[in-house]
Amino acid sequence: MSTIENTDKTSNEKYLHPRSPFEYLIIIEPLGLLYGSSGRFLSPENLVGRSGSSFPPSAATLSGLFAASKGKDADIRDLMLAGPFWGNVDELKPTEQNFYVPTPRNYLVKDGKIVDKLSWVSEKKSWINEAGEKPTGKYESNTWLAINDWNQPKEIKQHPWKFLAHLHPRLELSERHVIRNHEEQGSLFLENSVQMETGTSLVYLSNTKLDPGWYRFGGEGHMVDVRCEAINSKLNKLLQAPVGNIFALITPAIWGSNRLSYREPVYLQKGNKEKYNTENPECNEQKVWSIEALFTDRPIPFRYRLGGKGETKSLSRGRYAVPPGSVYVLKEPINQAWQDWDVNWFPQEGPSLKRWGCGLALPLQACNELM
Predict the structure, then answer these.
(1) Do 324 and 227 share a structural domain?
(2) What are residue 249's phi and psi, to 5 degrees?
(3) Of the candidates 322, 305, 304, 52, which has an alpha carbon nearest to the alpha carbon of residue 191?
(4) Is 57 in the same domain as 173?
């Protein structure tokens, strides 16, 4: 589905703040291949390369399923989603509901096992392991941790999908031959499809129930089987726990203004023409958190909607997001769960980005115990 919602309820009326807390798991099982990223048109002189791979789809893509399910009169202004995650179908039963989230970056992984856990030591201004050392070497990245093992991490896994490039020829109407006149558009389209392992599915959190059924999900109209399960008490307890002063992100975090991206939320003063003064970009911004340390990686590009007027839409200007797995250490604890964070901490572009689960965080109990 498209990531934009242009229903009458959302385009002509003021957005509501999302409801909280999360109440449902949205489980999406592919019925074949899924869409990996937007491809590009190729010419006979340029049949090389592959467009950038992006998977799994963001929570914004999931909102298209709600619009499709509810119809054109859907009132989804207070929808709140978070993800993407993944899980094994056998482990997503209502009594277990175990799925995988990005591993906190202070957990160093080799051969699918956590070999070191780093904690921030204020006196040394450094991340060190339990032996008081700074480990060196190469470690696995982009790993996933079972949500049921969050407070006592055990099993670490790699993602269960792989990319497959497909060429889609545009054929002549009267014969099985690629279009010869390709001045207006190319006759070959390169699609990056994704094949997930049998028995695995994508998982998202939602505060709104979604009707089960088959849907087109992502680009190129790939079909998926969707079901919705109420969150059990164990998972709800974890999601409702205050994050404290040490927590990890399990979704990308977009902070700052519409033009500037930051590593932490800021209060923005509205109505000031100098808000985006490039010579002094922080002149009208106040930081929300007092960060003592941040364990992160390079920012990742993030787009969540399409822009432009009329029926033909174009990609909106991208943002930079703090990658999931980033670990924050604050001087003062946040005595609230993520769902209760002030909506003003999140940028607002149409709806608040809290709607898409921006920067969903869980407390790192193990690190708190080490300190």
Answers:
(1) no
(2) -80, 140
(3) 52
(4) yes
**pLDDT band for position 187 (cuts 50, 70, 90):** low
- Yes or no: say if 243 and 362 are a contact pair by the CB < 8 Å rule: yes
Q: Pairing mode, if any, of strands 188-196 and 34-42?
A: antiparallel
Q: Which domain holds residue 283?
A: 241-371
302, 178: one domain: no
Task: Say how far apart CA 193 and CA 190 lie, in whole Å.
Answer: 9
The Cα–Cα gap between 356 and 358 comes to 6
How remote is the C-alpha of 82 from its chain's centroid? 7
- In this structure, the answer to whether residues 184 and 326 fall within a common structural domain is no
Q: For residue 14, tell me if it sits in a domain.
A: yes
Give me the CATH number covering residue 352. Answer: 2.60.40
Show Cβ contacts of residue 46 under 8 Å, excluding neighbours closer than 6 positions. none
What span, in angstroms and rounded, lies between the C-alpha atoms of 362 and 244?
9
**Domain-terminating residue out of 239, 257, 273:** 239
- Residue 114 belongs to some domain of the structure: no
Residue 313 domain flag: yes
Q: What is the pLDDT of residue 183?
A: 58
What's the rounded Cα separation, in Å, for the pair 96 and 337? Answer: 22
Which residue, of 215, 239, 263, is where some domain finishes?
239
Q: Cα–Cα distances in Å, from 172 out to 37, 169, 177, 221?
A: 26, 10, 6, 22
The model's pTM is: 0.84
Nearest-10 Cα torsion for 236, 237, 239, 244: 170
Identify whether 131 is part of a domain: no
pLDDT digits (tens, 9 = 90+) for 100-157: 999 999 999 999 999 999 999 999 999 999 889 999 889 999 999 999 999 999 889 9
Structural domains of the chain, count: 2
